[in-house]
């Protein structure tokens, strides 16, 4: 089947069938296939946010010497900013009917989009899938010590692979169920953990091991929670692009997306902060969970095991769409298999020292995604991308490079002196740690500034090799990806 970038995409009769393999890849979703309700965005993101590592991030408040009040305000603001952008991006998906990675061809150009998609989206999809496999496999191994880690991970990744192959409708169906199950599960974990802890609440502590001042610590800690949602920015539209194409649905989808993400992060983050005083240095997340939940540990471990599915359905699916965006001639099904195999291999290597590797991966990804998000948002609101008649441009390979690519590069380069990772510290955190981690802000603002200065300029274009590549009015009539890539399942 060939791909078409506009409302002329052929009707493949997918509709709301849950047990059918999704027939679309990076295609524009035609009006006849638009279905679902805006409420679905709440369940899909609420379920994805029910994740124990968020509580582990909350533990860090004590290490930064923050008071409980400061920690709570940092969690709320960091989560709100990240969730608000998620809501906007979700709204864009319902409006345009294409994946987020295809949308980024607008500001960056068809081929300029390759670099950030290759690193940010494909790398993020594989990396986050590996992170979640590790946590789920550790939980399964803790429940059944006789099952080795490698086998636990293999079982989990196999189930996730099958669901991701079925695609959009199956993922939405299971996320709705998991949102209810995980809600009650994490209520239990929260109540039992806080009840069992003997160190709930804390005051500011200048003697804390990572104390960098009240302001710097607050900024850095808020960035922890914002970065968790920044990591989802390149994938937000992927799960709203089938929604009915009307302004009301799009706006409600954005609101539900914001709510689902904000509630989970603030809830679990604050719960983690409350438990920070009882955190043990160097303790693995699953060990911390078992200790905090006591006799309820088996139930808590099952909850964490289930939460690995709610995250990885999205990680694997989004990563596969990213592979297709790069014009790699594989079907979505094959891309899913590749993502799962690579994530499984990485999980076997990265299982030890999970928390440190998790934070490095989280922050590095967010550093690179923040300027990417700036170009994407401004292209939509300022560059006129919300005009649905311009969807064809996203599939026009003669648009080689646009100035949004240079905005992204400028944002990344400008932010490097602010990077604060365990393996690399820029000039700012070394000489002015009291400023906190401003990387996200610097990258976003610089990219936004460069975009605003250049978006009117013409991008780099090339003449089409064949007349068939461009329609009579200059719009693309087909994505050049081979027919076996996007249109085929």
Provide a descriptive summary of the structure in words:
It is a single chain. The protein is globular, with a radius of gyration of 22 Å. It contains 17 helices and two strands. With 489 residues, the protein is an all-alpha fold. The chain starts with 39 loop residues before the first helix and ends in a 28-residue tail after the last strand. The protein has a domain of 338 residues: Hydantoin permease. α1 runs parallel beside α10, α6 crosses α7 and α6 packs across α13. Helices cover 61% and strands 1% of the residues. A two-stranded antiparallel sheet has the order 1-2.
Task: Name the descriptors.
two-stranded antiparallel ribbon, Pur-cyt_permease, 2 strands, Hydantoin permease, transmembrane, transport, disordered N terminus, 489 residues, 61% helix, transmembrane helix, mainly alpha, globular, membrane, disordered C terminus
Give unreliable regions as ranges.
Answer: 1-7, 467-489
Global outline:
globular
Q: What name does the CATH topology of the domain at 32-369 carry?
A: Hydantoin permease
Query: For the largest beta sheet, what order do the strands appear in spatially?
Result: 1-2
Count of strand segments:
2
Q: Tell me the major beta sheet.
A: 2 strands, antiparallel
Q: Name the CATH homologous superfamily of the domain at 32-369.
A: Hydantoin permease
pLDDT average, as an integer? 87
The CATH first-level class of the domain at 32-369 comes to Mainly Alpha
**Helix segment tally:** 17
Work out the helicity level. 55-70%
Keywords: Membrane, Transmembrane, Transmembrane helix, Transport
Pfam families: Transp_cyt_pur
InterPro entries: Pur-cyt_permease, Pur-cyt_permease_Fcy2/21/22
Protein name: Cytosine permease
């Amino acid at each position: 089947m060939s791909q078409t970038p506009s409302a002329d995409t052929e009707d493949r009769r997918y509709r709301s069938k849950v047990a059918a393999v999704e027939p679309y890849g990076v295609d524009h979703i035609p009006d006849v296939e638009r279905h679902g309700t805006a409420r679905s965005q709440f369940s899909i993101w609420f379920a994805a946010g029910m994740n124990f590592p968020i509580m582990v991030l909350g533990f860090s408040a004590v290490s930064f010497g923050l008071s409980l009040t400061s920690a709570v305000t940092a969690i709320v603001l960091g989560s709100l900013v990240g969730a608000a952008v998620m809501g906007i991006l979700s709204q864009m998906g319902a409006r345009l009917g294409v994946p987020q990675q295809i949308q980024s061809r607008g500001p960056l150009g068809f081929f300029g989009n390759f670099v950030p998609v290759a690193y940010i989206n494909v790398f993020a999809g594989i990396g986050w899938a590996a992170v979640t496999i590790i946590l789920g496999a550790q939980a399964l191994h803790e429940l059944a010590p006789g099952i080795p880690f490698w086998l636990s991970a293999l079982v989990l990744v196999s189930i996730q692979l099958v669901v991701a192959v079925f695609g959009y409708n199956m993922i939405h169906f299971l996320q709705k169920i998991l949102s209810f199950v995980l809600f009650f599960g994490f209520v239990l974990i929260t109540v039992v953990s806080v009840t069992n802890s003997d160190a709930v609440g804390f005051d500011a502590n200048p003697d804390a091991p990572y104390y960098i001042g009240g302001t710097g610590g607050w900024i850095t800690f808020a960035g922890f929670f914002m970065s968790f949602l920044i990591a989802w920015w390149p994938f937000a539209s992927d799960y709203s692009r089938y929604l009915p194409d009307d302004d009301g649905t799009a706006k409600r989808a954005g609101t539900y997306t914001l709510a689902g993400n904000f509630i989970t992060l603030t809830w679990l983050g604050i719960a983690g902060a409350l438990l920070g005083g009882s955190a043990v240095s160097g303790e693995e997340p699953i060990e911390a969970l078992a200790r905090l939940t006591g006799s309820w540990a088996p139930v808590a471990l099952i909850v964490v095991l289930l939460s690995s599915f709610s995250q990885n359905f999205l990680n694997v699916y989004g990563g596969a769409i990213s592979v297709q965006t790069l014009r790699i001639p594989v079907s979505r099904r094959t891309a899913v298999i590749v993502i799962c195999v690579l994530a499984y291999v990485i999980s076997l290597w990265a299982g030890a020292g999970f928390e440190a590797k998790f934070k490095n991966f989280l922050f590095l990804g967010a550093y690179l995604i923040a300027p990417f998000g700036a170009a994407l948002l401004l292209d939509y609101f300022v560059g006129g991308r919300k005009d649905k008649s311009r969807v064809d441009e996203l599939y026009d390979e003669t648009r080689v490079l646009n100035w949004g690519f240079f905005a992204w590069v400028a944002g990344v380069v400008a932010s490097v002196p602010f990077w604060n990772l365990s393996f690399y510290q820029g000039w700012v955190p070394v000489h002015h740690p009291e400023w906190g981690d401003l990387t996200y802000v610097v990258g976003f603002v610089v990219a936004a500034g460069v975009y605003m200065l250049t978006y009117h300029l013409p991008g780099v274009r090339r003449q089409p090799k064949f007349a068939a590549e461009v329609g009579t009015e200059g719009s693309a009539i087909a994505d050049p990806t081979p027919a076996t890539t996007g249109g085929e399942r």
